Structure formats: C-alpha cells, structure tokens
C-alpha cells in the first residue's frame, strides 16, 4: 500500500480489525520511510459495475462518489458515520448481487432514497430535490406529504 504522504510503497500494517459487521477489514498502517500513519479499508468487490447515465453514457461505478452523494444529503445532520457506512455498503451489495453488470443511475438514486428515508427525513428531502429535479416549492410539499403519509401509515412505535 502506497503512503499517502510520501508515496513510498514500504508500509507496514500495525493493526487489523473487522468493521461494518465483518464486511470490511480496517487496517492501521505506518510508513517505514516518513513515519506517517493512515488507515485503509479492505472490502469484497463481487464484480465491476458500470453505471448507465441518463444521457446513455456508461461510466465505471464509484463507491466513493456514492458515499459523497449521501454525505452531501446528510451535511450538518447528526447521523452516526457507521450508520452511513452500513447504508452505502448495503446499497453496493444490492447492486453487486443483482447479477447485472450495468445499473442505471436512476436505480442507484432510488436505492439511495430508500436508504435515506430510514436514516433522516431532511437528508431524504435534500436528495429527492436533486434526484427528482425539483423545479418549484410544490415539489418539496409533495415529498413532505409522502413522508408524513408514510409516518401515519406505519404509526407510532410504542413501548410496552
């Protein structure tokens, strides 16, 4: 693993432990040249995926781009980072296990919306405004009504 500080390839693993319920290995590393310390994550990749954009263009799937999109929606919201990691890993697992080598950007957006709905209503609305290309205030009202109707349908959670 190349050191992010000095670009040396001479690094050592100091500690390894499972993360994300065992789906990822977290490794603490140290560079033997500059002494820099950094963390890497090792995760299983079942297959290479391509994303079909709305324009018809095909691009390689990028987990980091997916993570950035979710993080933008969650900006300034108090959500545990581990929960975000689990949600993104779940989306990636769904995409990889679908058996299809290509996935539409619409499908990815739908999966993100489903995940955000269970994490944070405000993030869900933020993401929906971009994903559904809101053009007027009424669009926000419609999504808020969806959330409210969903909350009413599931009812309050009561402790016994």
From TrEMBL:
ATP-cone domain: residues covered: 49-139
Cofactor(s) the record lists: Zn(2+)
Record note on cofactor: Binds 1 zinc ion.
Pfam family, one: Zn_ribbon_NrdR
Zinc finger (unnamed) boundaries: 3-34
Record keywords, A-Z: ATP-binding, DNA-binding, Metal-binding, Nucleotide-binding, Repressor, Transcription, Transcription regulation, Zinc, Zinc-finger
InterPro entries registered for this protein in UniProt: ATP-cone_dom (IPR005144), NrdR-like_N (IPR055173), RNR_NrdR-like (IPR003796)
Record field: transmembrane: none
Family: Belongs to the NrdR family.
Role summary: Negatively regulates transcription of bacterial ribonucleotide reductase nrd genes and operons by binding to NrdR-boxes.
Name of the featured protein: Transcriptional repressor NrdR
Species for this entry: Phyllobacterium ifriqiyense
């Amino acid at each position: 693993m190349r050191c992010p500080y000095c670009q040396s390839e001479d690094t050592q693993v100091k500690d390894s432990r499972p993360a994300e319920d065992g789906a990822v290995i977290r490794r603490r590393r140290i560079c033997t040249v500059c002494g820099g310390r950094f963390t890497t994550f090792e995760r299983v990749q079942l297959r290479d995926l391509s994303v079909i954009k709305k324009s018809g263009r095909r691009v390689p799937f990028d987990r980091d781009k997916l993570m950035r999109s979710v993080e933008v929606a969650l900006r300034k919201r108090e959500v545990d980072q581990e929960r975000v990691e689990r949600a993104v890993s779940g989306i990636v697992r769904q995409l990889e296990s679908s058996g299809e080598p290509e996935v539409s950007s619409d499908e990815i957006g739908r999966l993100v919306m489903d995940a955000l709905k269970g994490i944070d209503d405000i993030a869900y609305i933020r993401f929906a405004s971009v994903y559904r290309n809101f053009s007027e205030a009424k669009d926000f009202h419609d999504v808020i009504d969806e959330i409210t109707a969903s909350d009413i349908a599931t009812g309050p959670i009561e402790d016994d």
